[in-house]
Amino acid sequence: MAEESPDSAYHSNGSSLEEEAERMEDEEQERLLSYWQNVGRGHQVDVPRDMAEPIQQLTRNNNPQERQTIPFTLIQRKEKLGELLYEKRQYGKAKWACIKMKEKQYEQSICLGFMKLMRYICEQNSSGLYLGITIPIVTIVHTNESQSEMTQSVTVAYYLPEMLQDEPPHPFDSDIIIEEWPSTIVYSRSFRGITNEDSIMREINLLAEILESPELCLQDTFIIAGYTNPAAANRHNEIWFLQRP
């Protein structure tokens, strides 16, 4: 009986280790997909199977130290009895990947919009590369003239990392548009928890009461800035009022 050579034994062990690594990778991908599908059901959104790879890639690269925060210049901090009421900031001219959504509920729009942007970030772009996470992911919302209710139309937007600002990779998804936003002054107030029509309108009305001159800002267009993904329960968010040009 011929003995197995050390070389063939090495290859046998090597291939079995690779198979084990692949199996563990597949199991992790399934676990993450199942988790996001459960979250999606809570927002009345179906998370398709083709999201498994982008979800896994985004999760693997979602270390806080690797996230790039959108740069801004702090102009003013307004406090009362040690509590931060709002910040006045200036954001520079920059390019964003944007997608317009119009689902029945706000949560559906941001979940579906975020999934499309995840695919773009995770290699489904002309560079074929993972683009990296920037925070916050922002959503432009609109209200009626009396600021009593939101309209269904929203825009979910991803700030392109500094190194991609000059030449943004082209999205494969034709629904995603690269836009250049002008330099803007915003009034920002932090809040935590879920974001839906009720919580957003509450935060809009609250900041309008706090600001000395809310009439200096746009009256029907606001931004929700999200610092944690839509799957998180106790999200860190901000409401932004946009100063008129």
From TrEMBL:
Residues 1-30 are annotated as: Disordered. SUPFAM superfamilies: Probable bacterial effector-binding domain. Residues 17-29 have a biased composition (Acidic residues). GO terms for molecular function: heme binding. The lineage of its organism: Eukaryota, Metazoa, Chordata, Craniata, Vertebrata. InterPro entries: Reg_factor_effector_dom_sf, SOUL_heme-bd. Belongs to the HEBP family. Pfam families: SOUL. It comes from the Eukaryota. It comes from Spheniscus mendiculus (Galapagos penguin). This is Heme-binding protein 2.
